[in-house]
Design goal:
Blueprint (H helix, E strand, L loop, with lengths): L2 E6 L3 H13 L5 E7 L10 H5 L9 H4 L6 E4 L2 E5 L4 E4 L2 E4 L2 E4 L3 E3 L7 H4 E2 L4 H12 L6 E5 L3 H13 L4 E5 L10 H13 L3 E3 L4 E5 L2 E4 L4 E3 L2 E4 L3 E3 L2 H4 L10 E2 L12 E3 L4 E2 L12 H20 L12 E5 L5 E6 L5 E7 H20 L14 H7 L2
Parallel strand pairs: 1-2, 1-7, 2-3, 7-19, 9-16, 10-11, 10-16, 11-12, 18-20
Antiparallel strand pairs: 4-5, 5-6, 8-17, 13-14, 14-15, 21-22, 22-23
Cofactor: FAD
Protein name: FAD-dependent oxidoreductase
Family: Belongs to the NADH dehydrogenase family.
Length: 389
């Protein structure tokens, strides 16, 4: 009987893990099933572009994984039972020998009153499409407020302001604008936001969202015909209910090979996993984190199943890539543990750099078995038993 591998979620991390496993392992030895709710790949890093009416290239999974041996299951995951080694998808229970959990994250209203009722989100394609429709209906001069000064908030505010210069775009940041960046990086943000006419509200905590405004902790009311909420992400509660060891925020705790510290048959990658990086600091939720996590997990699974050598590649950062509309960008170079250094790349060249990064990430998903060595090692019975211990 082949070793059953189920991959839950086909975002960047899940799709890459499934493809890499298909290349590493002999097809007759494994049955790889990739479960995802949608039939095509969502470039989550481009949701701000979709929201402003820019068409995105369709990337159907049926074409991506054709001929790879990966079985696609378009379904919604409703439960994981790590003790029984089962997952439930659309009411059907499936057993596994190895599970890769890659269900990612979604937007986090953070319990702020009115957010769920009145705000829009960019953490999903349906959310981006709803926002696109709302923005398209706005007349010139109407206000748009983006709440959240992180990467998603910056990209959303600048993209909307560039695409719709007739709107009054504002950004509400909990701290200082770009406070995690270098001095050069922050200076460039101020330059771009000023040029695009974005009103920046620093040190502003939004405590309530209304249908036509946001209310701040200091009692101010900022008009908003549309409010875009980008203040953090949350993982799906399925992980917490699975029996796996999770953090207080529900992320699955894994070791350096992305293996669950409580259930050795389970690996977690992407936003849903809590892993330590350089400097013993937790890796942040990002595509830059999810992709190498997927490589690490797939290589570790293959090594354990075939009796090979475990990967020992430390996960580290090199830069943070921020698009500021289609014509501007900011590449902030960082230390291995993600602290900004003085060096930055800005302007049109930075925009091109970021675009190449996005295209490269999508290419890696769309071509899951290219660029890797051919299958060489069969799954051994002894290794398979040890891997699932």
């Amino acid at each position: 009987m082949p070793h059953r591998i189920i991959v839950l979620g086909a975002g960047y991390a899940g799709a890459i893990a499934a493809g890499r496993l298909a290349k590493r392992l002999r097809r007759e030895d494994v049955a790889i099933t990739l479960v995802n709710a949608e039939p095509d790949f969502v470039e989550r890093v481009r949701m701000h572009q979709l929201a402003t009416g820019q068409p995105l290239k369709p990337r159907p999974f049926s074409a991506m994984f054709a001929g790879t041996g990966v079985q696609l299951r378009i379904a919604t995951v409703t439960a994981v039972d790590a003790d029984r080694r089962t997952v439930t998808v659309d009411g059907e229970e499936l057993g596994y020998d190895t599970l890769v959990y890659a269900l990612g994250s979604r937007w986090n209203p953070q319990g702020v009153p009115g957010t769920a009722e009145h705000a829009d989100e960019l953490a999903s394609r349906p959310g981006a499409l709803r926002l696109r429709d709302r923005l398209a209906r706005l007349d010139a001069g109407q206000p748009v407020v983006v709440v959240g000064g992180g990467l998603t908030g910056l990209e959303a505010a600048t993209e909307i302001a560039e695409a719709r210069p007739d709107l009054k775009v504002a950004l509400a940041a909990h701290g200082a604008l770009g406070d995690w960046l270098s001095d050069k990086g922050r200076a460039h943000l101020w330059k771009v936001t000023a040029r695009l006419g974005i009103t920046v509200h620093e040190h502003t905590a939004v405590t309530r969202v209304e249908h036509d405004a946001v209310v701040t902790a200091d009692g101010r009311t900022i008009a908003a015909a549309v409010t875009v909420w980008t203040a953090g992400f949350a993982v799906h509660p399925i992980a917490r209910a699975s029996g796996l060891e999770v953090t207080d925020t529900g992320r699955i705790v894994v070791d350096g090979t992305m293996r669950s510290v409580s259930h050795p048959q389970v690996y977690a990658v992407g936003d849903a996993a809590f892993a330590m990086g350089a400097g013993d600091k937790p890796l942040r939720m990002s595509c830059a984190t999810g992709t190498p996590m997927a490589w690490q997990a797939a290589d570790a699974i293959a090594a354990r199943l075939t009796g090979g050598k475990l990967p020992n590649t430390p996960l580290r950062y090199f830069n943070q890539c921020i698009s500021l509309g289609r014509k501007e960008g900011l590449i902030q170079y960082v230390t291995a543990d993600d602290r900004a250094v003085s060096a930055v790349l800005t302007g049109r060249l930075a925009a091109v750099y970021k675009e190449l990064i996005c295209k490269g990430a999508a290419w890696g998903v769309a071509n899951p078995t290219l660029g890797l060595p051919s299958r060489r090692h069969p799954v051994t019975a002894e290794a398979a038993v040890t891997a699932g211990a």
